[in-house]
Amino acid sequence: MLRPSTPRLPVRFTSRPVVSMLCVSALCLSALGVSACAPRASQRSAAEPPAAAGRSVPLMLQGVQDVPVAEARDLSTLGIPVIDVREPHEFAAGHVPGARNLPLGQLDAWSEGLDPEGAYVIICRSGKRSAKAVAELEAKGFKHLRNVTGGMLSWEREDFPVAK
Q1: pTM for the full model?
Q2: 33 vs 30: CA distance, rounded Å
């Protein structure tokens, strides 16, 4: 009895690294909740959050939650503003590229200049001060916040880019 054979792609199509890279990229984008067909968010500073730029907050940023550094890096790459709540001397020693230094001790002053409907990624050295900043911002009505667990210590451990 003969079994119908399943069509096979020629080896030259299945062994290309580009195909593998595309598959991995598609999986990563779907895990982030980002459509490969969606327009890419432009780079913005913390002073110009997505809502202020006339765009709605991305679905993946609804609510307040803790995120690992890999997700924070991806959000930063998509243009979500990163706010570093460490002291200026800590920030100068190394920070997430494009991050804004807004120290936790001055939160009341700088939070007034941010859009409560905007999305923000908050980071510090270890995740403790950023968690406190997220709680205080949430109490002030901010709705779309991400606290980076492990902070810059985890960021540097993962060997992600650091600006000085």
Answers
A1: 0.65
A2: 5
